[in-house]
């Protein structure tokens, strides 16, 4: 169940980062509120995951899910353009996350 909490925490990291962008510097109250709610859910789920998972495993996976998810949303929804070398490094992030998961006990 700890891994489920960790994945949810990572997803909500992407959620709050997206709403933070949409809040336009926290000037739009609705998106600012959703940013804060997303942060709370993300942090609570991360805290729950670290009850059983070591921080050295949970934190990099949480940030990795957030980083990769934010890159993908930026490209798909905000029209961000990435160079091929940037995509290569995003792929390395994904490989790192999978590697950390597969080698943790």
TrEMBL record:
It is a multi-pass membrane protein. InterPro entries: EmrE-like (IPR037185), Small_drug/metabolite_transptr (IPR000390), Small_multidrug_res (IPR045324). The chain crosses the membrane at residues 5-23, 29-47, 59-79, 85-103. Pfam families: Multi_Drug_Res. Its main location: membrane. GO terms for cellular component: plasma membrane. GO terms for molecular function: transmembrane transporter activity. Keywords: Cell membrane, Membrane, Transmembrane, Transmembrane helix, Transport. It comes from the Bacteria. It is found in: Cell membrane. PANTHER family: GUANIDINIUM EXPORTER (PTHR30561:SF0), SMR FAMILY PROTON-DEPENDENT DRUG EFFLUX TRANSPORTER SUGE (PTHR30561). Belongs to the drug/metabolite transporter (DMT) superfamily. Small multidrug resistance (SMR) (TC 2.A.7.1) family. This is QacE family quaternary ammonium compound efflux SMR transporter. The gene is smr.
């Amino acid at each position: 169940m700890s891994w489920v909490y960790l994945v949810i925490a990572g997803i909500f990291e992407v959620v709050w980062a997206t709403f933070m962008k949409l809040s336009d510097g926290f000037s739009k109250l609705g998106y600012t509120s959703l940013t804060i709610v997303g942060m709370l859910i993300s942090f609570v789920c991360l805290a729950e995951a670290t009850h059983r998972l070591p921080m050295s495993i949970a934190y990099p996976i949480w940030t990795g899910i957030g980083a990769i998810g934010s890159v993908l949303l930026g490209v798909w929804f905000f029209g961000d353009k990435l160079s091929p070398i940037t995509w290569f490094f995003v792929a390395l992030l994904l490989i790192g996350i999978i590697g950390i998961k597969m080698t943790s006990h």
